[in-house]
Amino acid sequence: MVEFVLERGNYWAIIGLMMIGLYIAFAATNLIKRLVGLGLFQTSIILFYTSLSRISGGTAPILYGKDYKSSYEDKDSHGETAANGAEYAGEAATDAAYGYTNAGLENVYSNPLPHVLMLTAIVVGVATLAVGLAIIVRIREAYGTVESDEIREMDLQVALAEAQDEADELSLASGATRG
Amino acid sequence: MNGDHHVILRVVAKALIPIIALFGFYVHFHGEYSPGGGFQAGVILAVSIILYSLIFGIAPTMRAVTPGFARAVAAFGFLLYTGVGVVALIRGGNFLDYDALIRDEPGGHLGQHVGIIVIELGVLFAVAGSMVTIFYAFAGRVSEIRDEDW
Amino acid sequence: MIEMLSSLVPDTVAAHAPALLVVVPMITAPIAAMMPNGRIAWFLSLLATAASLLMAVVILSQVRSIEGGAVLSYAMGGWAPPAGIEFRIDGLNAMVLLLVSIIGFLATIFSWPSVKAEIRDAKIAMFYSAYLVCFTGLCGVASTGDAFNLFVFLEISSIATYVLVALGAGQDRRALPAASHYLLLGTIGASLFVVGVGFLYAATGTLNMAELSVMLPQIPNNKAVMAGYAFIVVGLGIKAAMFPLHQWLPNAYAYSPSFVTTFLAATATKVAIYALVRFLFTVFGLEFVFEGSTLIWVLMPMGIAGMVACSFQAVFQTDVRRTLAYSSVAQVGYMLLGISLATAAGVSAGLFHLFNHAIIKGALFMALAGMVLSHQGTSLNDCRGMGRTAPWTMTAFAISGLSLIGVPLTAGFQSKFALVSALLDSGWWWGALIVVFTSVLAVIYMGRILEAVFFKAPVNPNKRRKEAPLMILIPLWILAISNIWIGVQSDFVFGLARDAAAMLILGGPQ
Questions:
Q1: Distance from B69 to chain C by nearest Cα, in Å?
Q2: How far apart are CA C41 and CA C260, in angstroms?
Q3: Residue-range definition of the domain harbouring residue C340
Q4: Which residues of C touch B71 (CB under 8 A)?
Q5: Which positions of chain C have pLDDT values less than 70?
Q6: Which of B65, C121, C189, C510 is 20 to 30 A from residue B100's alpha carbon, by CA?
Q7: How many structural domains is chain C composed of?
Q8: Among C159, C17, C5, which residue's Cα sits nearest to residue C93?
Q9: What is the set of domains in chain A, with CATH numbers?
C-alpha cells in the first residue's frame, strides 16, 4: 500500500495542486486570486503531461552519440524522405508512450510529444492570463474594486434600480393612457 | 526622472540589454540543432525591451519601440508563419508542407531547413511583438489606483 | 445550387478546401488588425467569411459526392495522419462547418451598423480582428481530426470570445464581470478537456481521433480511459452550456455587444456540442459510452433538467436578451435529449435542432440588435409598440419566435417533431411529454414578448424608434425566410443531419 502511494508520488502532487488551484478559482472573492488559482490549475496540467512523457532511464529527447551519427548516415545512404522520417519519429513516440524502448536507437529518450503539446498549452495559458488580467484592470476602473462579492452587490443595486425605473415608467404610461 | 540613485543599475543594464537581445537571436538560430527556437527567442527579445523600460521608464521605451510598431511586428510574425503555409499551397504542396517550398533532389531537405527557420522567425516576431504589446497594455495605462489603496 | 457554386471553384483550390476554410480568416485577422479604418476591416472580414462559406459549400459537395458520405482527410504540412495533424471532414463536420460559415457570413454583413454604434471607432479594426480569430477557432474545431488540436482551436475561439464579450463594457459595465466569469469557467472547461485528452494519450499513445476510435475498443475497462471520458464530458459540457454548467451563459449573452451575442448564440455552443458528439460517438464509440458508462443517466437527465428549469427561468426575465439566453440553455437541453437517445433518429433530431436553433437564435438576436440600434434598450417595456414602428424587423422577429416555439410550417416545428417521434420510437413517451410541456413554456415566454411588441402601446411615445437599417434587415430576413423554408421543405437540412447521424451510429469513421 505504501509503495502504491509512493510510486505515484508525482500524480498525488499533481492532484493536490489541481485541487488547490480549483478551490482558489472558485472560493476566492478577489478576482486576481481567482486567476492565480486558474494559473495553478493549468500548471498542474502541464506537470501531468510532462510526467506522462517520462521514461525511466530516458534523457532529454535530443539525439546524441551514436544515434546522432547514425541518423545522418541513414539519410545519406537510403535517401529517406522527411515524411518517412516523421512517420518513424511518430512511431517511436507511440512506442515510448507504451513504455517500449526506442526502436533502433542506442540511447533511451523521453517522449518529446507531450512537451511540445505543453508548449502550446503554456501559450494558451499566457494568453488567457493576459486577457483575464486586462478584464480585471477594466473592472477595477469601472467598479473601483476587484472583490467579486462587492461587484455583485453593486450590480444588484443597479438591477433593482432599473427594475424600479421600469415599474415607474410602466405605471406612468398606464396612468397616461387612463387619463 | 532623476537617475542618480540607479547608476549601477543603468550601467549594468546598458551593457546587458544588447547581450540579451543577441542571446535571443542565438537561441533562435541555434534552435534548429539544439533546444531553443522562435518562442523562447521571442520572449528573450521582448525581455530586453521590457528590462529597458523597467530601468529607463516606459515613456522613452514607447518612443523607441512604439506600441503600434510592436503590434505590427506581432501581426507580421503571424503573417510570416501563415505565409509560409500559403506559399507551400501555391507551390503544390499541402498547407505548411515545407518540402514543397524548394524543389530539391529526392532525399534533400533544403525545404525543411528553410521552412522551419522562416516559420520560427515568424514565431519570434509574433511572440516578441505580442509580449511587448501585452506589457505596454498594462504598464502604459494611466493608473487610477492611488497609493493608499494598495 | 451547391453543385453550381462548387463547380465555380477550380480543382486545385477545391483540393485544399479544408485548409483554406480555416486559413483564410486566420490570415485576414492580423491584416484587419493593422487597418487604420474600421470600415476596411469590416470589408475584409466580409470577404474572409464569404471565402469560408464558399469553401464550406465545396466541402459539402465533396462529402456528398459519394453515396453514404465521403470522408475527406487533409494532412497538414504533408505529414501522414497518425503522426501529423489531419483535418478530417465527414458529413457531421461538413454540416457544422456550413452552419458556422453561413452564420458567420450573415452576421458579418449585419454587423457594421450595430458595431459602429456600440464600439468606439478606434477599436473597430481590432474588434473585427478578434471576431475573425473567433471564427477561425470555431471553424478549426469543426474540421480538425486531432484531439489536442481541437483543444487549441477551442481556446483560440474562446479567448477571442472573452475579449468580444468584455467589449460590451462600452454599453454596460456589467459586461466585464460577465466576461471574467466566462473566462474563469471557460478556461476550467477547456483545461478539464485537456486533462481528459491526456488520459487518452496515456492509455493509447495517440492523439488522432480516428486512431483513438480504433484503439480504445482494444482496451476495455481501462480506468485511465474512463477518467479521461469523465473529464472530457464535463469539460465540453461547460463549453456547451450543459444544464448545471451553464452559469456563464446568461450574463455573457445579455451584456456583450449585440453583434457578438448574435454570433455566439448561433455558433459557439453549437460547435461545443459538435465536439461532444464527436467524442461520444466517434472517439469513444457507442458501446463504451452508452452501455459501459451509462451516459444515459447523465446526459439525458441534464438535458431534461435544463429544458424545464431554464424555460421557467426564461419566463421570469424582464429583459428580452436574458429571456433568449435562458431559452438557449433550454434548447441545448433538447439537443442533448436527442443525442442521449443514441439511436439514428434521436441523434439526427438533435443535430437537426442544432442547425435550426442556430438559425432561429441568429435571427432573434439580429432583430434585437436592430432594436438596440434604434431604441437603446432590450427590456420588455422597450419592446412595447415596436411592431407598429418597426414592422419589418419585428415581423422577422415574430417568425423566428414562432419557430422557437415550434409552430407548424417553421423550422422549430420540424426539429421538435423529429425529436418527439424519435422519443416515441424509443418508447420514451414521458420525454415526449416533457418536450411538449417545455414548448408550452416557450409559448409563454415568447408570447409575453410578442404581445408587448404587437399589442401594447409604447410606454413613452416620444422616444425615437425606427426600422433597423437595410444592412440588418437583409440578413435578418434571409434567416427568417430560411426558417419558413426549412419548415416547409426540410429535406435538405434534415438530410444532412440524418446522413451525419447514420454515419455516427452505424458507420463510424471509415
A1: 10
A2: 16
A3: 294-510
A4: 33-34
A5: 68, 289-294, 376, 460-465, 507-510
A6: C510
A7: 1
A8: C17
A9: 2-61+111-178 (1.10.287.3510), 62-110 (no CATH)
